[in-house]
Amino acid sequence: MVWSDKKIRTLDDVPDKDVLKALRSLKNFYKKISSVKPDISNPDILKCYNVTAKKHGLPLRINSYINQIEVKQIDPFANISFKKKFVVNDIEMDKRTALKYINKSICIFKQIEKGTYKSNINKTSRNILCSSSSCDYYDIFLMWADKEIRRIKNVKKEKVMKALASLKKFVESIDSQNPNIEDPKVKKMYLASKNKHQPQNKLVELLPISKGGLSYWSYRKHKWIKGKIDRKTKEFIAPKKNL
């Protein structure tokens, strides 16, 4: 998918029989983009919008995850039904962890609303912090790869559940196979994952290239590519290049 001479999105390994279907789907997607009021809630359209804005020196746009409205978004490759190999990469692992803790925070706050939660929420939840003595206000956190990405301060108690639902929706929308690093929040999350999963090993060859090793970060697979030790020969096998 190309916009203003810039590659926006790639669909890899399309079977020959599905290439025309993919191109027709992409053509239909382009037709649905409004030049008057583009739907920037759609991550692909937002990328296109910002490419055009940057080209003409206009302000870039970003989406906020708080108070997002759930809508059915058009997909440039929606008509492609072949099964694409899903890679559980470093971004996907951190996404699953983030969702696990958000779901836990939602369960905790439901108990708080019912008056049945007896523990200290400031010690049990990664995503909520009581910010007033009466606990009528809370700070909401977007945590990713053990790093605080964003904090929304002083959310009223009656709006906390809505904020958590929006936070969950935002994290679910992260495409671990094709993350939109044009979005500042997603880029910060992406770099947090890259840093967290950086190889740490006594064997020099397994360290990142920047530290004298052979491991490198793949911007195509969105994970660290590392070598390994052969079980039989005990020799080091270097990682494949350009993955």
Kindly describe this structure.
With 243 residues, the protein is of the alpha+beta class. It is built from six helices and nine strands, in the order E-E-H-H-H-H-E-E-E-H-H-E-E-E-E. Strand 4 and strand 5 form a beta hairpin. It starts with a strand and ends in a 6-residue tail after the last strand.
Distance between the termini: 21 Å
Count all strands and give the number: 9
What is the topology, as strand order, of the major beta sheet?
3-4-5
Task: Please give the share of residues in helix.
Answer: 25-40%
Q: What's the SSE blueprint?
A:
Elements: E1 2-3, E2 6-7, H1 19-32, H2 43-55, H3 90-114, H4 121-124, E3 128-130, E4 137-144, E5 147-156, H5 160-173, H6 184-196, E6 216-218, E7 223-225, E8 228-229, E9 236-237
Antiparallel strand pairs: 1-2, 3-4, 4-5, 6-7, 8-9
Helix pairs in contact: 3-5
